[in-house]
Specification:
This protein is an alpha/beta fold. It contains 19 helices and eight strands. Helix 12 (214-226) links the parallel strand 4 (208-211) and strand 5 (234-237). The longest helix has 16 residues, at 313-328.
């Protein structure tokens, strides 16, 4: 949707009592009223209407959003604040008025086909046995760029599939190993559509695409159709797909220690998935989860969403530290999550964070090291 399509929501926020102000992890991290959801919408309305201050500072405020949807949880009107802000980013990019770092990230994407500036194909070749790498298959595991930064997560996924006797899944090894979500978040809708068309062709033979990252899952299923590039495959989280295969006769080595669980925003609020990972963890952990305030649909963002860590790394890190403090207040020794981006943000903040797939691998084959925290 274009920025003009958000006119009703922009006006609603201008006159609302603004109960969302305490639900924004960016505002909490920066301690500034100017980056609360309502004020960001007011600045965005000025951009849309041409009324009000037209300064670089006023335009830059649209970048202070994680696209986490927490504000919408507290909005009685269902206003789509992230949608309006992402549309504003796209408009500013067309006007060549976006944040300077955005241009560098988009340049990296054009060169490497991912926002990290890394050769993900090399990572895939190192982390995944050659016989499992496929350019296409009926059931493919699409790892995504964040997971391909983590050898332990990819290795764990391969071990889990082997331990459960799953031989119908190939690890996608095409030319494009990132779903393209950063392009959407940073406002480059044209490059996103081009990338989506290319990846859709590469995934054309798949009936089912399994994901390690909920952002990839949401992008492939719902953003690709917006770009006119709908996949002809069912898109699903790997752990959720594996759940019915964890039958009672599968031997499980219960994992000792205390854990809490961090719900990724994309899993909890975009995908409405909060219970499957908890059922899986209940199966493999010796102790019950230590739940924290701000969980399930009310989860608090770790600071890793919406492209914000690349544009405003200090804000992303502050949000991660704040979330880590909440999680550790449970007294848990370690943190489980189901998003490689969340795992990385919480790990960089000093937490012992692991993906549920890594924990499942440890419970099934005992070869992962659940005490390790991968460094960036």
């Amino acid at each position: 949707m274009s920025l003009a399509g958000h006119k009703r929501d922009l006006a609603m926020c201008a006159f609302c009592p603004k109960m969302c102000r305490f639900a924004c992890p960016v505002a909490e991290a920066e301690h500034r009223e100017a980056v609360t959801p309502a004020w960001k919408m007011i600045q965005t309305e000025c951009l849309r209407s041409g009324v009000g201050p037209d300064t670089p500072q006023a335009a830059e405020v649209v970048n202070h959003c994680l696209a986490c949807l927490h504000c919408r949880t507290y909005c009685r009107h269902g206003v789509d604040v992230p949608g309006a802000l992402l549309a504003a980013r796209a408009q500013l990019l067309l006007l060549r008025r976006q944040h300077g770092s955005v241009s560098e990230i988009l340049r990296r994407f054009r060169e490497y086909r991912n926002p990290l500036g890394e050769d993900l194909a090399q990572n895939l070749a190192r982390f995944v046995p050659q016989e499992l790498q496929v350019p296409e298959a009926q059931v493919v595991l699409f790892a995504g760029c964040q997971a391909l930064r983590s050898e332990s997560l990819i290795a764990a996924a391969v071990k889990v599939l082997a331990a459960l006797g799953v031989d119908v899944v190939g690890v996608f090894a095409g030319d494009d190993l990132c779903c393209g979500a950063p392009l959407w978040h940073l406002g480059d809708r044209r490059q996103f559509a081009t990338h989506a068309a290319r990846l859709r062709r590469q995934l054309g033979g798949a009936r089912r695409v399994l994901c390690l990252c909920p952002t990839c899952e949401e992008t492939l299923q719902n953003l690709y159709p917006e770009a006119g590039q709908a996949l002809g495959a069912k898109v699903q989280d790997l752990a959720e797909w594996l759940e019915p295969r964890l039958t009672p006769d599968v031997p499980i080595h219960k994992l000792d220690g205390s854990f809490t669980y961090h719900d990724p925003c994309y899993a909890a609020r975009y995908r409405n998935r909060t219970e499957p990972p908890r059922r899986l963890l209940a199966r493999i952990l010796a102790e019950p989860l230590r739940e924290t305030a701000g969980s399930r649909e009310d989860t608090v963002c770790c600071g890793g969403g919406g492209g914000l860590p690349w544009i405003l790394p200090e804000t992303g890190a502050a949000a991660a530290r704040r979330r880590l403090t909440q999680l550790l207040s449970t007294g848990a020794e370690r943190i489980a999550t189901s998003c490689p981006g969340c795992r990385r943000m919480l790990g960089e903040a000093g937490g012992k964070a692991l993906d549920v797939i890594e924990l499942l691998a440890e419970a099934l084959v005992g070869s992962s090291d659940p005490t390790s925290v991968e460094k960036p």
